[in-house]
Design brief:
The protein is α/β, with parallel strands linked by helices. The chain contains 14 helices and 13 strands. α3 packs across α4 and α7 packs across α12. Its EC number is 2.4.1.227.
Length: 355
């Protein structure tokens, strides 16, 4: 049996891809341990799977002035010392790092202990933590062809992002029953992220009479953003959020309208769902969703409607356009280099662990 350490934390997006690898690692007879921060979100998420969890000291690396810049380096140094002890104790054959600042001392400790290192970068351009870690890495996985140009030649591998197995196992009939939909219609799913999106919600509601002529509509609006007057409207189901039933809703959906976070769009790619991406505007973000969305558009995986151009008319037109071309989107997603991320990453892990 080989040993692997997984690391990543700070946000759920730095943890869920690690979780997606767990069944495959078990099938390949790996003993898995996890290193994260003392009390980060990763601790709760990982412990639910019964994986041994080891907390270390962690500090954020900032590119702006903050008084914590004087104390956090000491936390990172302490974390490095703790990670070196764990490497010697656990004796891993390989380390897989999903990113976040907690991974910096873990990766550097693995390098010191001569443990092969695989890093995964979700965004188009590597974040600060992964840029620090890349020189120590054996391989760096990424989601976008454009990212290859930002990484050292010979290390970069276009894999896509691992998606939880259960997300691929939804049941259409369960979703029909849950939403109380007629069975003989196609379904559009709208999901605006965990907080919802007021502009998307408004545009969708403005065109509901037109959409409901031909489609069922599942509308995940965000907390506090449902519209009580629309409850009970035939063919329309609105929710603040969906957790347990999400895989069933995906299975039912024939077209998805979504934000363009890296993990979200990789889920759509793995599920092969024709989609319209409405990325967060530059006014509300650093612009990474816009880069993500246009990369997927160039690859033929998605259509893009930027929020500045979003109206009820442009949204309806884009829906009609994408739905008419849905088979070509599915074909592109089925043959892309990111079509089977879990097996590609597991094969890289096997390759590096054997060194």
């Amino acid at each position: 049996m080989k040993n692997i350490i997984l690391t990543g934390g700070g946000t759920a997006g730095h943890v869920t891809p690690n979780i997606a690898l767990l069944p495959g690692l078990k099938e390949r007879d790996y003993e898995v341990s996890y290193i994260g921060s003392y009390d980060g979100i990763e601790k709760k998420l990982i412990e639910e799977f019964g994986i041994p969890y080891y907390g270390i000291s962690s500090g954020k690396l900032r590119r702006y002035f903050d008084l914590k810049n004087f104390t956090d380096p000491l936390k990172v140094i302490k974390g490095y010392s703790e990670a070196v002890k764990l490497m010697k104790q656990l004796k891993p054959d390989v380390l897989f790092s999903k990113g976040g600042f907690v991974t910096v001392p873990v990766v550097l400790a693995a390098k010191k202990c001569k443990v092969p290192i695989i890093i995964h970068e979700s965004d188009m351009t590597p974040g600060l933590a992964n840029r620090i870690c890349t020189p120590a890495a054996t391989k760096v996985c990424c989601n976008f062809p454009e990212t290859l140009g930002h990484l050292p030649h010979g290390k970069a591998v276009l894999t896509g992002s691992p998606i939880r197995k259960e997300l691929l196992q939804g049941n259409r009939q369960d979703a029909i029953d849950f939403c109380e939909f007629p069975e003989d219609r196609q379904t559009i799913m709208i999901i605006g992220g965990s907080m919802g999106a007021a502009a998307i919600n408004k545009a969708v509601r403005d065109i509901l009479p037109e959409l409901l002529k031909d489609f069922n509509v599942v509308h995940i609006c965000g907390k506090g953003k449902t519209e009580p007057d629309l409850n009970g409207l035939p063919g329309y189901a609105q929710f603040e959020y969906i957790k347990k039933e999400l895989s069933d809703i995906f299975a039912l959906s024939d077209l998805v309208i979504s934000r363009a976070g890296a993990n979200s769009i990789c889920e759509l790619l793995s599920l092969k769902k024709p989609n319209i991406l409405i990325p967060l505007s530059r006014a509300a973000s650093r612009g990474d969703q816009i880069l993500n969305a246009h990369s997927f558009e160039r690859q033929g995986f998605s259509a893009v409607l930027e929020e500045e151009s979003l109206t009820s008319e442009t949204l309806l037109s884009k829906i009609q356009e994408v739905y008419a071309s849905r088979d070509s989107y599915i074909a592109k997603m089925s043959t892309g280099s990111q079509a089977d991320p879990i097996h590609k990453i597991l094969d890289l892990i096997e390759e590096c662990a054997g060194k």
